[in-house]
Amino acid sequence: MECTFGLVLWSCPSTCGFTEDFCRIGAGVSLPGILAAKCGAEVTLSDSTELPHCLEICQQSCQMNHLPHVRVMGLTWGRISQELLALPPQDIILASDVFFEPEDFEDILTTVYFLMQKNPKVCLWSTYQVRSADWSLEPLLYKWDMKCVHVPLESFGADKEDLAESALPGRHTVEMLVISAAKSL
Are strands 174-181 and 146-150 parallel, antiparallel or unpaired? Predict the structure, then answer.
């Protein structure tokens, strides 16, 4: 059985104004990164170097949305590459539903830890669908000297079954986290 991710193009209207530098890891369909770029953020979209079709979709989403300045790069979690080394310090890392395979959790946090070395104030903002109550990031957060704050979806009106005229998240449990270095500067 083959699973395919990141095969949707997104076209977004221009709306608000961000000034932060964003790195979107595991961009897949790239919607959060495209929206951040449309709002004025300097955005780098990334997905696995092993998924060139996802990188192509990111490029096409940027073209459709008239965002030629958005950088698209191959970045595989847990691997130090020339692209990762060349990435400038980031302010925010967006990660939408990347915590779906427990064997990837440490690779994701290792990559975030590396980016925290460039900017200790960088935060990972992540939403994810809870797939098992037995899975936890807590031991890995401790290992990598990070902390996590749970952001209740109801705090910004995203706790509805029918959100933005979509059946998603439906009856799935979706969580939002902000992960940062354990020791604040």
Answer: antiparallel
